[in-house]
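Notebook entry, structure prediction.
Reason for the run: the old model in the group folder had no record of what sequence produced it. Starting over properly, with the input documented here first.
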Amino acid sequence: MPDILTPLQRHTCMSRIRGKDTKPEILVRRGLHARGFRFRLHERKLPGKPDLTLPKYGVAVMVNGCFWHSHKGCRYATKPKSNGEFWEEKIKRNQHRDEVTTAHLEALGWTVITIWECELRGKEAAVQTRIDTLAWEIIQAGQMKKQGQTQRRLARLSARQERMLIVQRQNDLEAEISKVYQIPQKIKTASKEID
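New structure, fully documented this time:
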């Protein structure tokens, strides 16, 4: 079935679709703000400029449109019949960009949570349930971040204590050797300069 709009009408229609501040994104922002979360929008310093970032919890939230990111198994992820090659290529580029962005954010220590547009459609109760689930996921990610920080802190403390023990043993050995053998001061000074 051919497109019912002319190419110029289709261009005008598609050019009005926003990249940020979309209805699903605003629903998520309002829901999280009402639950006491504070966040940053479209953080330019991070790869992919995530829709929402919650630095306190180490979470980046991506609100994806089902059509634009080809949500598998979703009824809103339809493929246009006209200019099919263009749309297929564009959607593949979007998916690839999403994968790369997620990998970069995770490498930087962020937990990436993706919310799909279809999850925010329908009855108000279902939308609120999804936002409640998102809030729970954010809290869990924050707890994991704190545990990781605690483990790293303990590992640094353990390494520091181990280094101190090695230095103490080395000093004890040097003192013991000095008691047994008469080592001239020049040799002691030279060995310390080599270390």
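Summary: The chain has one domain: 7-150.
The old model has been moved to the deprecated folder.
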